[in-house]
Amino acid sequence: MPLAKLGPPPLQASLRCRNLLSLAAFELAAGFVGTARDHLANVAHCHATGCCASPRLCRAGDEAPVSPPQVVRLPPSRSAIAPVAGSATIVTLPLAPAADRIGDRLECRSMPLSRLLESRRLSQLHDYWRELWLLSRGALADFDAVRLVQMAALGWVHLVDVGAEDPARFAIAIRGWRVPNAGIDKSREGMRLGEHPVRLLSESVMSDYRVAREVGAPLYHRVRSRLRGHNYAYRRLILPLSSDGRCTDRLLVATDFG
To answer: What is the reported pTM?
Structure first.
């Protein structure tokens, strides 16, 4: 059931209550319609009264500074080895960062999961995913979205539907609203990756998401890029999830721009 069918929140509230809206979307994806309705009711209350009915959830993490996109230089790439679930997967990277004719550039390096300790948020999220995987092989029905609040990860994670056979049909089910977007308004919730206007980025992401779905194990990357005149440098953790507890058809994609 799309979130909109529970009743669209007023625009004024949606601008103030993005954490609650994100929580509602995750609860709905996990099948908890009642909880999603409660979050939306709190959004409506905020709009009607000007008072937040759920400040500990809605305002959590807002005090944390948001790092602006970093200006980076993109050196030539080399091959990297990325451990996956106790084994090693050889990932061959291009000799130079990928580039297109309009000046966009992108370099994506596979990183060992041991390097997750560089990011407290991503490390905590990976630890929670391991608990979830042992419990039910990452079933969405067991996913507790409030844990995202506790880890200051809400708004920094996407939920991606990778159930389609064609990666171009992979869709952004929930978009992390805090993640910089280079002013690309078309990158929205519900968008298929094949529709993304920046082909260099979409092709790289489709390839990485396809691998994550096929191996059914976490993937960790360091990404540096220049897209539409904006420079970015961030870490990205891709975690496999399942809508039925059996097959990987959802991915939780977390980013850290710190």
So the answer is: 0.79
